[in-house]
Amino acid sequence: MDLHVPFDGRRDLAGQIYRRIRAAVLAGELRPGSALPPTREFAHRLGVSRNTVSGVYDRLVAEGLLVARTGAGTYVRSVANGAATTPPPAAVAGSPLRARRAWEQVLLPPDLTETPLFDFRVGSPDPRLFPYATWRRLLGRQVHPSVVGSGLPTDPAGHPALRAAIARHVRVSRGIAASASDVLVTNGIQQSVDLVARVLLAPGARVAVEEPGWSPPRMLFTALGARVVPVPVDDEGIVVDGLPDDARLVYVTPSHQLPLGMAMSHRRRAALLAWAVRHDAAIIEDDYDTEFRYTDQPLSPLHSIDHTGRVLYAGTFSKTLLPALRLGFLVAPPSLHHALLGARFVTDWHSSLFEQAALAEFIDSGGLAAHVRRMRAVYRLRHREIMAALVGPLAPWLEVVGSAAGLHVSAHLRSATATDSSRLVEVARRAGVHIFDFGMFVVDPATRPGLIFGYGAIPTYRVAEGLRRLHDCVKAVLPAPTSS
Questions:
Q1: Alpha carbons 410 and 393: distance in angstroms, whole number
Q2: How does pLDDT run across 107-154, given as a tens digit for each residue?
Q3: CB 287 within 8 A of CB 313
Q4: How far from the centroid of its chain's Cα atoms is residue 378's Cα?
Q5: Which of 29, 123, 252, 374 could form a disulfide with 24 if both were Cys (CB 3.0 to 4.6 A apart)?
Q6: Long-range contacts, 240-244 (Cβ 8 Å, 24+)
């Protein structure tokens, strides 16, 4: 590691070098066993004589902070032999810089690094099901000069092979008429939403979102200067009659509404598209969890029945593969291609080429389709077990929202309050059961409270015991059910 020595003048150079190295060792910046630069190289870089650096090293060796190995160099010795480790200096306090208020109000995500025994949290697939051996083999083949090419940054639209593979994938699996030129590779749904908002929304523009609904897009729109209007959701999806006439953009999750879980009806989809035409608005279709349906046939996406070019279709591989891959895509009309590429270029330019190339091969080889089929069979069992509990032992307290897809099932609390719901989540957590309520998905505090049963992360063999423990918590926290 190159060590920076900030000289404050040309006097006492040896003392300044000594104090900098000593502080770095004691603060742990230079870790035990780390090699210091050779004296000749370090002296040349600092613009001092070699003797000056050699004298500093000898002094620190005598103090027991460094150790010299003949013919091998000088290394940091463990500070456990009597020297006290000091913390690194704190950042400058009291800066006059202040962020815009909208960014200060963004709620940061909860800590999801913990692995609870009974994990019913929403939003994650089962990492144990990921085909690690296959992925390592695919990735290994792509770590090659032919993938990197000239070494210069790539097309902001993404790797050509992946764009073509995604276009074929959505044509076959979702009936979406798209070519490779219509596909923009992104880091996931959130970046797709960000790019669309940057391209379409002027400051103060009005955006409609679902209520309850996924909160990060709502916070993003607000932070970018838009006026966000929450629109109620009923059992058919977003209530089109509740959309403001001047909305420029509508964000929806029609295949599996987040968090309630129902699919938007065909009638409501047609009404939403007609509304967008009448009001010259755009629609972001987040095709959330569409790959996992367990009963009926998949519903046609909005994009496939949109004949006016108003729907931007956003997908992700976070649920079918792993969130850690950070790969998604956006299918957009040609009129927006240049602007979206420009927005991607000036924000982060492109995603990792190696992962993009590996994913292209995984899709084209049939690996993704086979992997989704295997996952669907596993998740179907978990979905069935949770549904049985919700219409059985938990039914006196919870009213299940009909859901035949995705990686979660939701249920309204029959007679409890949002405060009861929050308390239940905390009591369940102490019992080893981690579950989310509707709190992070609502703007209106009057929205009916409920729980979200995610089953992507919890192993199948733990579902029954997790539900039993949750049942005990429900009985202890929620009001006793009224007899019919």
A1: 15
A2: 888 777 778 899 999 988 999 999 999 999 999 998 878 767 766 657
A3: yes
A4: 23
A5: 29
A6: 240/268, 240/271, 240/272, 240/275, 243/208, 243/275, 243/279, 244/206, 244/208
| Angle separating helix axes 13-26 and 50-62, nearest 10 degrees | 40
CA end-to-end span of the chain, whole Å? 72
Give 149-196 pLDDT, tens digit per residue: 766 657 899 999 999 999 999 999 889 999 999 999 999 999 999 999
Given this model, what pLDDT does residue 128 score?
93
pLDDT at 82: 47
Please state the rounded mean pLDDT for residues 202-231.
96
Q: What's the pTM?
A: 0.86
Amino acid 131 reads P
Burial 106-140 (b: 16+ CB within 10 A, else e): eeeeeeeeeebebbbbbbbbbeeebbeeebeebbe
* Residue-by-residue DSSP string for 149-192: TTSS---TT--HHHHHHHHHHHHHHH-----GGGEEEESSHHHH
- Phi and psi at residue 212, to the nearest 5°: -75, 160
Which residue type, as a one-letter code, is found at position 239? V
Angstrom CA distances, 47 to 17, 18, 35, 50, 292, stand at 12, 15, 20, 9, 64
pLDDT tens digits, 403-434: 778 899 999 999 889 999 999 999 999 999 99
Strand partners, 313: 285, 331
Query: How far is Cα 383 from Cα 293, in angstroms, rounded to an integer?
Result: 10
Residues 456, 125: contact at Cβ < 8 Å? Answer: yes
Query: Residue 398: beta bridge partners?
Result: 413
Tokens of 399: 């009213």
What tokens does 183 get? 């596909």
Share of the chain above pLDDT 90, in %: 74
Q: Where are the alpha helices (DSSP H) in 349-417?
A: 353-364, 367-390
Is 85 exposed, middle or buried (CB count within 10 Å of its CB: 0-12, 13-18, 19+)?
exposed
Identify residue 395 by its one-letter amino acid code: A
Averaged confidence pLDDT in the chain: 91
249: phi then psi, degrees, rounded to nearest 5: -150, 140
Q: Which element (helix H / strand E) includes 330?
A: strand 328-331
Residue 413: both structure tokens together: 């609390």
> CB of 218 within 8 A of CB of 209?
yes
HSE-up (13 A, CA, CB side) for residue 261: 27
The region, left, alpha or beta by phi > 0 then psi within -120 to 50, assigned to residue 433 is: beta
State the Cα–Cα distance between residues 15 and 52, nearest whole angstrom: 9
